[in-house]
Amino acid sequence: MALGNSQPREPSIEPDIQYIKTSTSFKDAVYTRRSRPLAGLFELGIRIFQFIFALASGISYAIELSHSNTSPSFIYTQVVFGLTLLTLIIEAITLRSFRAVFLVESVICILWLALFGVFYTIYIDQEMSLDPRYANVELRRMRNAVWLDLVNFVLWLASAIFSTIMCCSGTKAAVRGKLNGMKAKRRNGKYEDAENGMESGVVRTDAIPGNGDRLPTYEVVMTATREGRL
């Protein structure tokens, strides 16, 4: 190949464009999944059911708490109820990124499970006699509230699993985008090095043996020229 016929290769701008796009690919991946009809219907439906069942359970315990049942277990029910409503309100008025939402929902799920376990032992488990501190209640209401606690646990478990899937999907896309961006920068760097070599009059070709990826010296170029390889 003659030196006069060498044409510098224009660096491609596609890798840079791809890098810019993938820099926000976490949100892109999450929004793509959330835009599906089933995902949107699931989110809306589960939020409605979480609010309804949390309200039913919280009010049941609040009624008994107002009847001077001030044991720590009844106070704990209102703490869980309050945290649940606060989480639902925050998620309703803010844009969910799913980066930390699955952690919050997992904590709420565990709180409901603990609440169910405590009051199941008190009001459902017949192997133990009823503690006098919890006897001054409407037993039927409390037993219904226990099963409402179980429903709340299942709802928040499903929500936590959904958020975890969203977070994993977004993280996978973000990592893939960063890797593609690094490869694009590496390719652009090679194109710039080749163009700079052409402009400075230094020849870089695979026809010269033993050069690898290094630029040949003047003596090597002259020797290859005399031998007719350039």
TrEMBL record:
TM helices/strands, residue ranges: 44-63, 75-93, 100-123, 153-175
Coiled-coil regions listed in the entry: none
Source organism, top-level taxon: Eukaryota
Annotated keywords: Membrane, Transmembrane, Transmembrane helix
Record's keyword annotation contains Transmembrane helix: yes
This protein's record includes keyword Iron-sulfur: no
Identification of the protein by name: MARVEL domain-containing protein
Organism: Periconia digitata
